[in-house]
Design a protein that fits this description.
The protein is of the alpha+beta class and 317 residues long. 30% of the residues lie in helices and 14% in strands. The strands form 2 sheets. Strands 1, 2, 7, 8, 9 and 10 form a 6-stranded mixed beta sheet that branches. The chain has a 4-stranded antiparallel beta sheet with strand order 4-3-6-5, covered by helices on one side.
Length: 317
């Protein structure tokens, strides 16, 4: 018994020492923590009695103050408003109905009542418009003295001096034909063809032979026919062109006896007055009145002259 006890004691001590090493290795800071707690306890708790006298040391545990908790206000939740339940429309099935054409009902025929005849309106007599009387043109007969003075004017005109004179024929075809016949029968007018060189041709001369005009009888104041030509004069022109073939640049001209042109120029000077020789151009027109040939609508440089002249015929007819 004595031998076994020391053996068990040594074994127990060996195991305890090994356990202590394990604890010391596993929990190295546990003892230090306990020691620090004991020191804190000792510093916090005053000792009322000497350590020696008190067989048991009474220790009080002072716990740390709890952490501050921040209190935040939480707003009360708003009441939830429930949306009204959506009522789904009842499902309906649509049917396509083909409409039949509706026959129009005939409207009743209403017979129109005859309108009453309008009452005759008494028309007031319209005032008659009095047209102004045309200005009376004085017809001036060319005297012998004027015709004699006209011969001097004709010589001036034949030398390329004096105004340019143009006298128009009537626009109506019938009036042109009557005037042409009057000039041929009573005034000795000749219708001839003039070529580009100024040669005159008639049917009375031989083929290709020009007409040697007698300047003592006929005037050198030639009128070139333009515009609408009387039918009888057109036939004369065609006959001359057939008789004298191959004329260069032919044109139809009218030639009057010297006495007729002297009467015309003397009458124009009497109407135009002293401005006759200074005029650039004189315009007028022929007209047949009661078998008399008159020259009217005389314009001197565009200005209308008062009066008209009656041409003296070359021979009785």
């Amino acid at each position: 018994m004595m031998r076994s006890l020391p053996h068990k004691l040594s074994l127990t001590m060996t195991l305890g020492f090994a356990l202590w090493l394990v604890l010391l290795w596993v929990m190295p800071g546990q003892e230090d923590h306990k020691v620090e707690k004991k020191q804190q306890v000792r510093e916090a708790q005053p000792i009322t009695q000497p350590v020696e006298d008190s067989p048991v040391v009474q220790a009080t545990l002072v716990l740390p103050s709890p952490p501050k908790v921040e209190i935040t206000k939480v707003e009360a939740p708003k009441p939830v408003v429930k949306a009204p339940k959506r009522v789904e429309p009842e499902k309906t099935t649509k049917k396509i109905v083909e409409k039949q054409p509706v026959k129009p009902t005939p409207l009743p025929v209403v017979q129109a009542k005859p309108k009453p005849a309008p009452k005759p309106v008494e028309r007031q007599a319209e005032p008659k418009l009095i047209k102004p009387a045309p200005p009376i043109e004085t017809v001036q007969e060319v005297s012998v003295a004027q015709a004699t003075g006209g011969r001097a004017l004709l010589r001036v005109l034949e030398h390329g001096k004096g105004p340019q004179i143009e006298i128009a024929w009537p626009q109506e075809a019938k009036a042109r034909d009557l005037l042409f016949a009057r000039f041929q029968q009573c005034f000795g007018m000749e219708s001839v063809v003039m070529d580009g060189a100024g040669n005159l041709y008639r049917t009375a001369e031989g083929r290709g032979t020009r007409w040697e005009i007698n300047m003592d009888r006929y005037s050198g104041f030639l009128r070139q026919a333009a515009g609408q030509i009387p039918q009888a004069e057109r036939r004369i022109e065609q006959a001359i062109l057939r008789h004298h073939r191959g004329l260069n640049d032919p044109s139809l001209v009218r030639i009057f006896p010297r006495r007729v042109d002297a009467s015309l120029l003397g009458g124009l000077q009497s109407v135009a007055g002293p401005n006759y020789m200074q005029a650039n151009h004189i315009r007028a027109r022929y007209e047949l009145q009661n078998n008399r040939v008159v020259v009217r609508d005389i314009r001197l440089n565009g200005a209308v002259m008062d009066g008209m002249i009656a041409l003296a015929p070359y021979k009785r007819c």
